[in-house]
Design a protein that fits this description.
heterodimer; A: mainly alpha; 10 helices; 81% helix; globular; B: alpha+beta; Coagulation Factor XIII, Chain A, domain 1; eight-stranded antiparallel beta sheet; seven-stranded antiparallel beta sheet; 5 helices; flat
Amino acid sequence: MTRLKPSLYLDLHSTSMVSRQTLRTLLFSPGIYVTLSLALAVTMLLLRNTLGVINSGYATVLFEPFVTPLLGMCILGGLYVALVATLSVTRERESGTLETLFYGPIRFHDYLLGKQVAHLVAYGGMTITFLLVCLVLAWLTHLLLTPLLLAIAGLSLATTAALIGLALWIASLVRTTRGTLLAFVGLIVVVLALQVGEASLVSIVGSQQLLQFVFLRDSLIFLNQIVNWVSPVSYLFQGTDAAVRQSWGEWVMYFLIALLYGLVTLNLAAVQLRRKGVLR
Amino acid sequence: MKRAFFCLVLAAWFALTAVPSAVHADAPVKERQFVWGVLASTGHDYNGVFSPGVAPSLYLLAGQTHILLPSYTLVYYWPIDHEYKPDWASLNEPAAGTVEILTLDGRVLQRLTSETYLMQPVNTPPGSPPELLRGEQATAAYHAYETKREAYYASMAEYDKKLAEYMRQQELTPNDTFLQKPDPPPTFAEFFPPPSPGYFVQLDPGAYRLQLRDASGQIVPGSQRTLIAVTPRQESVGYAVIPESKWTIPEQSDESSEIIYVTAQGTTLYLEPFRMREFNQQELARLSNPQDTTASPNRWQWVQDAPLNNVQLEILSNGQPVARVAKQSYSVKQIPGAALGYTVVPFDASATASPDLEAFAVPAVAGATAYAVRLVYEDGIIVPGSERSVIQANDTLSPFSYALIFLPLGGGLVVLGWRRRIHARSLKALAAMGG
């Protein structure tokens, strides 16, 4: 088995091989299509609701109606590819494929980068398809579609790269498929609980002046600030907010941070995989 | 007997303990304390702000002139509002000295000395905020006010004298038709408080330290605060969007990323533009109440500012200006009869006292499903952040739209079917080779 040290040198051939193989597996599984259809179903529900709101009054002021569906697709699609990425590594380790693979001349970085690129390409395909469908829907409904969607979609590529990097790192830390799945889903549940809890408490304290919850609210705000630093999804939200305000410098900053996040987690995953080994 | 005695003692104990505690709750304990009072500028008006010792930070709007009023008063806790309140009526003693504004690391940036100020009421147009006068200007304005007031009192005294004389004459000669009742002097409704001492401060955005140093050079105990000069995150132009048929419930558009959707029936829209500023929610709340704990530090809030005047509304179709509309005054008339509804008509000063709304009227553009509006100054320069798209959306989603949900699933089925066919072909080829 090769025991090459992690380095900046990349074997593009190996990366491309892993990437193509992974992408083929992804395209030949139904998950990606089901996820996209699910995102479109949610979009349709939201648009139907938006049209209902517009028709209930003579004039209605609305924020760009395709932004929320796109963000939903970015999160759903991003989480799906990240989950598949983490499972693909653990499954390959459990089945012994990794062991066999690493007897050949392939580095951990090449292998993991191949995984990251393949899942990112799949995500890119989902995003493009989604945007095309949005274009058709905008034409059918006369709802406005603006370049803001492109800014969000572009940013989501970087944040999804970060999400996949994080998922690969989790896969390198946990040995079993069940453990990886639990860790990944647990992380999502914790982040979601924190954000929902914070939003509810902010609303309760703000609207009903319930001062007994101020400490709890402030604690959750503090925890969420930490989450904002470690969660790639929060970079998507912050970058979207910057794009809405047309603060493009901030948007670029979040894009670069997310890319860097993806690279760092990928390297951490490679180092961890090398330390732990790829044996079953 | 013993039980009855025990019950009596218990009842007496309850009666004795319960009543005084209720009395105690009504009289909060007041403590003499150094406090900062502030006449804080909002940019177009002034708010009174009270900062007791329990609120370690004082928030002011950056770039505006505020007046700091250090003083001693009695402070008490008011549990209903969960806040400390001042009892100015019992004690309002200005604290003298030099106000110091320092950087957070202790470098003195500004030393402020006391200056007199006066808030001069401005009556035209009605509801206008008072004008802040300082130093000599304040003294001169108050002197002018006093002169006018004295002249009014003198003319009132003169009038009273003439009126008394008139009444006396009327009593003496009730049938004298040449007697004329004197005219009262014009009403004098102005009221100026006398100029007061205060410390004027204007700051750039950032965090500072604030303290008062007394005549002996000592820092006045309880006067140290963190001073935060707040600035809005973004500024924009907002609109109150009033459809003719729904004028009592206007829609609010805060920022240019929002779109105004109208229904296919078409309606005249009345747009009232305002300057908007977006603040951090906690900073915004603490600008008026430094003790606030309910506002969230990680949320943002748009605040409607002064109305925008001296501008015109430009209507654009396909990106090209097609019309310009001036702001006009309108009255709203309820449709007579049992049916509900309103009509908006141009304001007629002879018919009604004041207009119901002052806005730009944008009629439904015939045949256009999308157009845009923006504000321009008189010299033609576009007001930043004033652009809005006005879109006429379709009523419903067509059945074809719902079919789009299944597009990816269909694509997936094709791919999977193709793969299965290739796989089967490969197996057949392998079997053929084996055979």
